[in-house]
Design goal:
mainly beta; seven-stranded antiparallel β-sheet; 14% helix; globular; SGNH_hydro_sf; Ester_Hydrolysis_Enzymes; signal
Length: 761
């Protein structure tokens, strides 16, 4: 089963219940936005004489603002999403601000108020086409202008519940026929409700903007056939019958659609009834190869370039007027765009995909148009491809030259396919995270896990900004170092070790405080690097295929049978603080979902994944609730992943007690499902500088290994050893989502890959 890349769930507010046939539309309701503080200069670019004012104590977001007193000073916020909000103060000294979206004037907003009001949304724009946009705000008058924060509505994948016909941005779902709404059935449906009909030819239709869709229903003895249409074209008939009830079943999935607006229609054709539980809409993650990327091969000596232009992405561009000169890129993805500039002296360009001629594009324009998309190619699944653009030596009659330029190649890819590639194998490290640190005013730097033979790219954690060598960074002696005028974010000693206690601190081992928080602070400061390295560079634990131990699990997978997988643990198992958990690009799914989807893809089985994990809980809670949350699911395979909270200094659980609790969970499940099998995960470590958190975590893997030796059908995943090995080279801050105990995307990928490696040869 092929699954598309991003599984970020937007929370929709119920605005009414649709109980009968026909169409009913409710008011638009958007997802909870992502908040970007004014200090995140990787996303907000300030032009003019702006100053940062911190610890003002007047209620600002994160207790700081940026401000200027000069008219025509401005900032530009770049975001990937469908909506944006400008958050400031209102006060007697504030005045008018001009707002531009994608360089088009939208409004002039007035920030005046007789008394101060904090965290005021003075401008909001939603319903933008999914993609990358800019908001520019220019000081027009008043004594000063303030930026407190920006909010944007990201794109990703969206669950749309069955329970009402709603309009969400460009989404619309409508029921036709005699549908009924059934709530609180307690059988595991999404949001605990479904819509159902008993009449053949009743249908629902769903309009969405994206690249793929899943239809989620139950399977049961009373359910039958449903005809599926995409954009008015019949696709297939799906059968929702099963001898026993299965909840949240993806009965139809379609990915690889061209980005844009589509319709999905499902018609009841057989069975006693038809159900709708939810629909899931997909977007791809978009990234880029800027024109300065070393992966782009230019005809030697034929191109000129600059990094100081006003119009191109990141200010850089390559151009040529040499006939047959070319630029070539090999990449991994499921779509590619050639982006350049239209101008009066531009000619024809031949485009080749995978060494096959694809198109000739005319890059002439009667005036200059920056960041123009000349060519787009899509594939149904991600793979390795090549694009080559060639100066054709022909031109429009109106053009004065045959030349062309390259601004950027933009591509989409499946992050879960990338996440599934074992980081300990091969010779390419993809998207290792770094957090550049300056403890004493020296240039901020961070070490790489392996010694690079070639650095392919350095990008923002959202993958939308590429940082340039010798402009933004240099590499030497195992470290990436920030240049003086770099755009790369970084942290200082004051950032890492605040002098006073607050909601964003935790006690530091030895005294004082460390910066803490589950917001996007760490994500916004971290960057990702992709590079090649020598083979066999990893010296830490790797998974050994456990097929001879997990016999029942492998039998189901090899026979393409349904597999019930339950993940039972704490907040790390919930997914905190992956990008999907925080609702930010690239929406990397939690490691449990990564495992489930990898198994589906490799074996073609339907993996029913259930995750009753609860943040903050210990193994004793797991023991006491195993019957309710795990045994009741009748699981085939259970992943047990407690230990982080058991090992905290303030409530440490002895290894012997921890072992007893985990063994009890196994016994409870096997009392009702004797053939159930188990993977026991040794937790990653807490920050050694977090006084209240770091204690016994490293000791639990030993007793988990003892359980695996004592019980059949049980194996361990030594994430403790993986993290210990990583920490020999990389600091904790590079791999965390909250600086205390939660992994970021990079460390979460290690979880998913290691556990998948126990089940895939």
């Amino acid at each position: 089963m092929i699954r598309q890349s991003i599984f970020y769930v937007l929370a929709f507010v119920m605005l009414g219940v649709f109980q009968g046939g026909g169409t009913a539309l409710a008011a638009t309701q958007y997802a909870t936005p992502t908040v970007i503080n004014d200090t995140v200069t990787s996303a907000i670019a300030y032009t003019g004489s702006w100053q940062l004012y911190s610890a003002r104590g007047v209620g600002d977001y994160a207790d700081d603002v940026h401000a200027t007193i000069y008219n025509n000073d401005y900032f530009v916020f770049t975001f990937t999403g469908t909506g944006v909000e400008y958050v400031t103060e209102k006060d007697s000294g504030l005045g008018d601000v001009d707002i531009y979206i994608d360089n088009v004037l939208q409004a002039t907003v007035n920030c005046y108020n007789a008394t101060r009001l904090s965290q005021q949304t003075v401008f909001s724009k939603t319903g933008l086409a999914p993609g990358t946009h800019t908001l520019k705000a220019v000081k027009k008058n008043g004594t000063y202008m303030i930026v407190d924060a920006m909010k944007f509505y990201p794109i990703g994948s969206v669950y749309v519940n069955n329970a009402t016909s709603v309009a969400v941005g460009s989404y619309e779902i409508a029921y036709t026929g005699s549908w009924q709404h059934y709530k609180n059935r307690g059988v595991g449906d999404y949001d605990n409700d479904v819509h159902a009909t008993i009449y053949n030819n009743d249908y629902f239709q769903f309009t969405f903007e994206g690249t793929g869709i899943d239809y989620i229903s139950e399977k049961d003895a009373g359910l039958g056939t449903v005809d599926i249409y995409i954009d008015g074209v019949f696709q297939t008939t799906v059968n929702c019958y099963n001898g026993s009830l299965l909840a949240q079943q993806t009965v139809y999935s379609k990915v690889g659609l061209a980005p844009g607006t589509h319709t999905f229609k499902a018609v009841k054709t057989g069975g006693t009834y038809m159900m709708v539980d939810a629909l899931k809409v997909y977007y791809d993650a978009q990234s880029l190869y800027d024109d300065y990327n070393k992966s782009i091969v230019y005809t030697s000596g034929a191109f000129s370039s600059s990094t100081a232009l006003a119009g191109p992405l990141n200010g850089s561009m390559h151009w040529t007027t040499t006939a047959n000169a070319s630029a070539e890129l090999s990449f991994y993805g499921n779509s590619i765009q050639y982006v350049g500039t239209k101008n009066t002296d531009h000619g024809f360009v031949d485009v080749y995909i995978d060494d096959v001629f694809a198109a000739t594009v005319d890059t002439y324009g009667s005036s200059r148009q920056w960041q123009y998309v000349f060519f787009t190619k899509t594939w149904t699944t991600s793979g390795t491809h090549k694009i080559k653009i060639v100066c054709k030596n022909q031109k429009n009659a109106a053009s004065s030259s045959i030349g062309f330029d390259l601004d950027v190649f933009k591509y989409t890819y499946d992050p879960e396919e990338l996440a599934a590639k074992p980081l300990w194998q091969g010779t390419t490290m993809n998207n290792e995270t770094l957090l550049l640190y300056s403890p004493d005013g020296s240039p901020a730097s961070a070490p790489l896990l392996f010694a690079p033979t070639s650095i392919i790219s350095v990008k923002s954690s959202r993958l939308d900004i590429e940082y340039l060598e010798n402009v933004d960074w240099t590499y030497a002696n195992g470290k990436l170092t920030r240049t003086a005028n770099s755009r790369i974010p970084y942290v200082t000693y004051a950032d890492m070790y605040p002098s006073t206690s607050s909601a964003y601190t935790q006690p530091r081992t030895g005294g004082g405080y460390i910066r803490y928080g589950g917001d996007t602070f760490w994500f916004d400061k971290q960057i990702v690097i992709t590079y090649t390295h020598a083979a066999n560079a990893w010296t830490g634990p790797t998974p050994t295929f456990a097929g001879s131990t997990l016999v029942n699990t492998m039998s189901k997978l090899n026979n393409h049978s349904n597999l019930k997988l339950v993940l039972y643990g704490d907040s790390i198992s919930v997914g905190a603080n992956t990008s999907a958990f925080m609702k930010v690009v690239p929406y990397m799914a939690s490691w449990g979902k990564q495992v489930a989807r990898s198994l589906e893809k490799v074996y073609g089985s339907n993996v029913s994944f259930v995750n009753p994990s609860v943040g903050g809980e210990q193994s004793l809670w797991g023991k006491n609730n195993a019957a309710t949350y795990v045994a009741s699911e009748n699981p085939d395979l259970v992943i047990i992943a407690f230990g982080m909270n058991d090992g905290t200094a303030v409530s440490a659980v002895s290894p012997a007690t921890f072992k007893s609790n985990i063994a009890s969970i196994i016994d409870t499940v096997r009392a009702t499902k004797p053939q159930a099998e188990f993977i026991l995960v040794g937790t990653t470590l807490a920050n050694s500088e977090a006084a209240n958190f770091s204690s016994l975590q490293s000791q639990y893997i030993t007793v988990l290994d003892q359980i695996a030796a004592e019980k059949t059908g049980v194996v361990t995943a030594n994430m403790t050893g993986v993290h210990q090995t990583l920490l020999q080279t990389k600091p904790f801050r590079d791999m965390t989502g909250n600086n205390v105990n939660h992994p970021n995307d990079f460390l979460s990928r290690w979880y998913g890959q290691f556990i998948t490696g126990l089940l895939v040869q």
